[in-house]
Amino acid sequence: QRILVLGMGVSGCAAAELAAHDGADVIVLDAKDDDQLRDRADGYRRRGMTVCLDWHDDRWPEAVDLAVISQGIAPGSRLGRLAQDLECPVISELEYGFRHAACPVLAITGTNGKSTTTELVTHCLRSSGREVISAGNIGVPLCEVVRRHSDADFLVVEVSSFQLERVAQFSPLVGVLLNLTPDHLDHHPSFDDYLSTKLRIFANMKRCEQAVLRLDLLEMPAVRDGLPSAGGQPITFTSEDDYRATFYLDEAGNLCQRREGEGVPFLHRDALRLRGRHNIENVLAMLAIGHAAGIDPATLVAAAKTFAPSPHRLEFVAVHGGVTFINDSKATNPDAMARA
Q1: Staple partner for 205: which of 90, 110, 228, 244, CB 3.0–4.6 Å?
Q2: How far apart are CA 69 and CA 65, in angstroms?
Q3: Residues in a beta bridge with 4
Q4: What is the average per-residue pLDDT within 102-115?
Q5: pLDDT digits (tens, 9 = 90+) for 197-214
Q6: CA 256, 258, 262 angle in degrees (round to 5)?
Q7: Is the pTM of this model over 0.70?
């Protein structure tokens, strides 16, 4: 195949490396041109790839079989317009990596909490003795992970709306929608477009009981319509004491699973190192993901107690003059800041 990779950032390079590893004829375009890109381009050319930097044309003049577009390329940019003009399929790096994945994928999206939940699921599954690798929007492209690893039990993948814009076959074993509030509206034309893009995480899934989402999202008709049609009910969670949810927080502060109408407590919220109701939701989501993947949530509880968030997430700094200072610089939108 001749594969055109648009963008030479982290995800674009990961896609180019995977395509070359797969024996494809690889062409890489980038609108920028700097010393770092030139050094990288020289290395790719020595390995037989075609690389064009400082690309300013809205068209690619040659036939290609497939194009892989990096998530940071806006639709209205030069490379974005070039992608729209191509006659071949155009897919995201996430989609390209998924097509090569040999391991079950647990995919997590939402407006907030994606990274924390991805790290939490990875930590708890590893502690239960499973070989688990995290990838995606958390920092390591899926294409890089699938090229290097083929024998993991699970790939835990953080997924952004940008990555879901160009998926076609993406079908995780478990798909997770943590929450939804307006975000990235400088990229998406409306909240409805943002919502429909997020819901693509469920588009190719076969069974509804392998979809995980916060209970209140089911009140949105678009969300209900976007769930897989086959199978039973989705796995839900809430930080309220609500009998309708599969995983919930009871009035006494216990994280519970509802089984046959009865609440089974796992641990008290005070046993967690994570703080805040939004982090309770992340832990409940982790238990729900394990359940949807066929893992007894009770085997994940001990590891949940030891999990600490990454730097910049409700990170204690100091107490000075009676004032407690918290570094929460990972709060990148108003909803995240309000919850913190």
Answers
A1: 228
A2: 14
A3: 27, 67
A4: 94
A5: 999 999 999 999 999 999
A6: 105
A7: yes
